[in-house]
Design brief:
By secondary structure, the chain is an alpha+beta fold. Helices cover 38% and strands 22% of the residues. It has a 15-stranded mixed β-sheet that branches. Helix 10 (329-360) crosses helix 13 (404-424) and helix 15 runs antiparallel to helix 16 (486-499).
Length: 739
Amino acid sequence: MIPSKNTLNSNFSLENALHHLKNITQEAHYVGSDGHTKVQNYIVDELIKLGLEPEIQTQTAINNKWFAATTTENIIARVKGTESGKALMLLTHYDSSPHSSLGASDAGSGVVTILEGIRVFLANNKQPKNDIIILISDAEELGLLGAKAFVDSHPWANNIGLVLNFEARGSGGPSYMLMETNGKNGKLLSEFMKAKPNYPAASSLMYSVYKKLPNDTDLTVFREDANINGFNFAFIDDHFDYHTAQDSYERLDRESLLHQADYLTTSLTYFSNSNLDNFNSNTDFIYVNFPFIKLLTYPFSWSLPLLIIAIILFFMLLFFGVSLNKITLKGIFKSFVPLFLSLILCGGISYGLWELLLIIHPQYQDMLHGFTYNGYQYIGAFVLLNLWILFKVYASNFKNDKPADVLIAPIFFWLVLNVLIHYYIQGAGFFIIPVFAALLILAMNVFMNLETKAKPIVFTIVSIPTMYIFAPMVKMFPVGLGLKSLFISAIFIVLIFVLITPIFFQPKSRKRLTKIIGFATIVVFFIATKNSGFSIDKKKPNSIVYIENYDDKSAYFGTYNTTLDEYTKQVFDDTALKGSLSSAETKSKYNTRFTYHKKTPFKSIETAKVSIKKDTLIGEQRHINLTVTPQRKVNKIEFVTKDSLSLSQFKVNGVLVHKHKPHTVKKGSFLVYHLGNQDKEISLSFRVNKNDVLDLTFNEISYDLLSNKNFSLQPRSEAMMPMPFVTNDAIIITKRINL
């Protein structure tokens, strides 16, 4: 039966969701922090208020791809259905990124969407056919460890038919739908559309690229380890807030939250009453957002026939165009010059100019996301710059009295591009749509004598699908991949522009437009430069770390900052050395290295105790059991080997790392253990060949540099924040394990 509850509202309430969000983002709540326990308790209490019976799954989990482990504390609840088929899972995570992120978007937005969404669902007093399992996982930020613990160890994992996962990689923008499946997408896509989302944002290009990348959401664990299909819903704009202290309640885009809510409410209503037993399909679909119909979809099998039809139409129009003297052979060959010149100039200038801007503004390199606070202004400036270059390059072609000539090279280039797409990335099959639009414009130029004033209007209408589909990609690449990919956007601008050049064959308006674009380019670059600094609302990321070597009694400070500021200069003066300390590097997302280090007095901070419980030779193998017990508040311990190792029967807290093969590492970190709320010590057991030389150390890391009594560093100003993606505000103690 549906749990009993008291509610005044059976519609999704943004106010309710924001109330939850404000409560769970008061402080950072990474694994092992006090805030983590507070957020966990809050979520459990809210689920109980809904009449549910939440449980905490406490389980050590290991991600052997990321060499990460912890004792996870998943929050799990269940709404009972009327039938015994597969269950629907609602998934997100409640841990924030270590060590300063408030986690409002990632993934507080997912938590509150599910809390409010399930309240609304229960308020309608209709029991679903399928069980609904709510998993608000732990330790996603550390290596998808909560999902791993659930899939590997919880009995409910065996009966899940579909997962809806809510995520974020920024604090705003539209939420994109990405499918996770080991098979083909036909059934998943058709069922998604039957759920009738009001604002689907998706494309099969993202799906195809996503399948080729090393994916990193909780849903990946369900697909890879349990062959369970699902949907990711995630927004990525305002990437500069991702994993920072600015991922806050105030900065989360309310429209993004409502977009997530739309996905949840429509999908939950549909899938909780659908057959979830089988999402296998024999067909992959191409799909893309399209004017008026939300998503245009058709099978991959159509791509080759459409391509062949486009090629035939192209050569037919070419033949008739030459025959009717609407296309000239000289004009055809000349049309390739501005096309390739534009690609080279726009792509090259965009790449080189961004590299120059990094030299002019070295502080940009301290934003490890690769997307600056004025990033949208730079996108606008580069778009305008590339358009100005295109108008200049094509100026002489616009004077051509046979505008059909100019379209030949672009259409030919797009056809070649679509041939490559067909063989290498079929999800981008919708790239054929602009070709058909351009062929229609070419046909009008060949067979019709439109009035000069009517041409721009007609050609613009025909080009709407091209611009609708591809214009968002101009922004998506630099937002998602960083501003270093502005040259990719430049290439897309060229590809779009060359297909719509017939729109601009009116000389007066074109010349005026070129001047306006040139002036606007200068203005927007000026605005971006003016906003290149930092402020309270656009905080500068910085870092200081203390590194102590227990064995040789040396100590250093290190920083990851390229540009030093008031905060970092209290340590790093003219005597600081450029470069890194290889012995003290810790694993980080972007493999970031120290840019400066400086020797400092040894503080003799108490280190963890290492107890060798077992060190025995049995036949040709050496069996070792050891325990590491911190003597102070420690957040993570990295175990490091200086030589290649093959560890058989490698267990962490009794959990086997690899079930069927040895744990092999070349050198470096072979385990990063994040101490959770339940952890008092870490136990390791493994076997090695008896002749193997073991040279093991561990880095003991605590996030208490600013509060530790051994140091008296001045705090950051309001216009600063801890640098994300690296070990920061930390004390690192390196110690050898004597074996």
